[in-house]
Amino acid sequence: MPLNMAILKTTAVLALLVTRAAAAIGGPVLDSAHLAKDSDSNSTLNSTAPSANTLQGVHLLLDNDVDSETPKFPVILLSKPRSYQQAQVTCESLGENLVNSTYGNLTQTLNTTTVAQAELVGTQRLWISNSTNPTNSTNSTAPTNSTIPANCTAFDRVTGQTVQILCSVNLPSLCTNSLNRTTLSQNDKSQQIKVVTRTFGTWQGYRDQDQFRFLGIPYAAPPVGNLRFQAPQPVNASLFNGTTGNGTPGNGTSGNGPTGNSTAVNGTAQVNDATEFGYVCPQLWPNNATLNQSQTIEVLGAEESEDCLYLNVFTPSLKANGTKGLPVMVYVHGGGFTSASGSSPPFEPGNLVSRGGVVVVTMNYRLSMFGLFENTPNISRSQAPGNLAIRDQVAALRWVRTNIVSFGGDPTRVTIFGESAGATSMRALLSAPSAFSLYQNVISQSDFMGLPFSSPGYSAQFGTFFMQALNCSATDLACAKNKTVDQIKSAETVAISQILNATDWVPPEAVFRPTVDGSFIPGDFAQLIQTKKYNTNASILWGTTQDETAAFIPTFAPNPIPIQDANQTLSTLLRDNGTQALLKSPYYQFNQSDPDTVRDQLSNATTDYYYGCPLQVMSRGAATQNSTVYAYQMNYGRSVNASFGLNVSSFCQGRVCHGDDIVPSFGSGDLYPGIQQTGDNARFARQVIDRFTTFAKTGNPNPPANSTTLGVAAMNEDVTGVQWPPYNASSNPLLYFEVANSTVANNSDTAKCNWIAENVNFDYQVHSPNGTFVPIFPAINGTQQNGTQPNSTQPTTSSTQLTTSSTQPTTFSTQPTTSSTQPTTSA
């Protein structure tokens, strides 16, 4: 299979964004803040920015329906009680004024937000502006000591009325928030704020309508030079904790900009710049595309560099000392372990943060060979331990555990979530004992769950091809460390072609996968479920889209395939006989009246084989082990391409393809100029956000109707009207997400999935890293929705079936075959 086709499949979500950037025609007008830092990176910092530690509780409140067209009335809550004059001065330090009584619906905003629930307990009255001017401007003149009357205006959140009380009384206060939502065309960084962490220095970020944004914070030492191919090493915190008394820069000269990201003058504490995304990890683009600086920033949010281990914190609340923090959601991006970043625009979390009342962390992690190189036994794991992408994620979670409290988060309530390769990462983190204590809940979206992790033999062969392409001997790690990034990328391209030619079952979109190394990842996920050695304490919510593989089919077959040419064409495109055997099923027969029936059924069959049915099997296994598991299928979505003004594949029109769940999950469908998120798209985003954030808060995606602790989620009838039960092995319930009338169905695909399990076998069985795997999980029980018992009467049809030479798939060795010498491996 051609390499460019393979890489294109791994980055289907971002491929057209790259195309737009490469064309450099009609692209968005990017704010200058999106451009890379210049040599004077410290000039972006406002020296008069207030400190959240001094404010002692500052919270961004917004009754956010994530609809682009409805008016928004954001306010800032200062929860520390102050006099009226102190409140006004504090608002001004934030570039705002006290809000007036006619601004929006203050009662609804205060009563529906979960951002500052603890702070509002027992609070009835809050300072607002004495003025009745309905403007939300910050240009009004603040009262002076001589003009402040004896009585000032407070808002009573119980009655919804204003009252006049003594100005000297100390009350919480409400300030305006005059900023807009951050998008690709507007990114106002003028209103900055500092956070002093316990051990990691002072970081200065900025505020927008929805969130405080702290960008480009390093969570591990730069993996460059001798640290290439090494496990992530701790950051030297002293680089960010410096002071100076002579006006010279502090010690932070190795941060996230070209010349460092910190400043300290005149004996003050060093302040580190968190207003810019950090470098993103080296990418392997479709068709070996190369982008210039501004194009790279458009697609990824920042420039590429091997120095890329940065994370970003988005929080609606900076808590007072000792106040319980908000739930934390840590996102691991997808992209086939070859592309994307934590700062890629589709993952803009403002609506998720604001509506959900959660802290969101996104991260970069090493990709391709930078993140998944190993070559045992030629190179020992002490020299190149492997699984670096997952080890990076664990390092980021450790940073969250230590530091997130300073950004308003609760380190004991962490939910990890990810889509595609990010979902495969969720599976790896559920398998890696070193990560178990770092999170409580897992949301996994569109994991290629039918595929096992890589075996040591596969990864070693891949690594050997890579070393050969670098012109390094198989044991010479120093040689590989001395190569340039471009040389590494070129060698990756060669190695991918070779490993695909050496194996007959690995899909091109999954050449890079975590490896079962026996320690960091002790076994393949199915085996760990069987032996109850995965993280059984974590609550799990996972699922698929309705038409996952339809996103990839046009890459192989851009045009409809005539039925008479099906065998020949599919034999060329699909090297795994198991997939062809799958199409012999009575559930995937060709419809003579449908001119695109071959591609339709190929999409249906491979979606079930790689995604839907393995999801049910793993759910059943985890439920058998008494884990709490919720499973879903999304029957509605929104393409990332459509949300960024790009064409959607004609084959995906009318389908819910792989990646179409990203935009609803973040509510990020209105970032590109001229593109809105409204109507059904906004309604569906509300439903997904409410389900996911409720799960992040409670481990259960069902908010009780009218709950006083779960905010707008408990008022969303699309959510409260459907009780989503945890998975069990007898009824196999799945929630089918729809715009309206989402439903839970039991045993909806039982017969189909049983047929696959009995007649084809899943790749994680046939190609398990530890040999052929026979699961102990019980067969899917119950009846289909039409009452037919699974595996009883098979559906009949007169349509044409695809014929193959054998009714059973060929079983392949877990070790890739090649004419070259293979390294010795162990389980």
TrEMBL record:
InterPro entries: AB_hydrolase_fold, CarbesteraseB, Carboxylesterase_B_AS, Carboxylesterase_B_CS. Residues 240-263, 778-827 are annotated as: Disordered. Belongs to the type-B carboxylesterase/lipase family. It comes from the Eukaryota. Pfam families: COesterase. Residues 783-827 have a biased composition (Low complexity). The keyword Hydrolase applies. This is Carboxylesterase type B domain-containing protein. Residues 1-23 form the signal peptide. GO terms for molecular function: hydrolase activity. Residues 201-235, 270-754 form the Carboxylesterase type B domain. Residues 244-258 have a biased composition (Gly residues). Keywords: Hydrolase, Signal. SUPFAM superfamilies: alpha/beta-Hydrolases (SSF53474). PROSITE patterns: CARBOXYLESTERASE_B_1 (PS00122), CARBOXYLESTERASE_B_2 (PS00941).
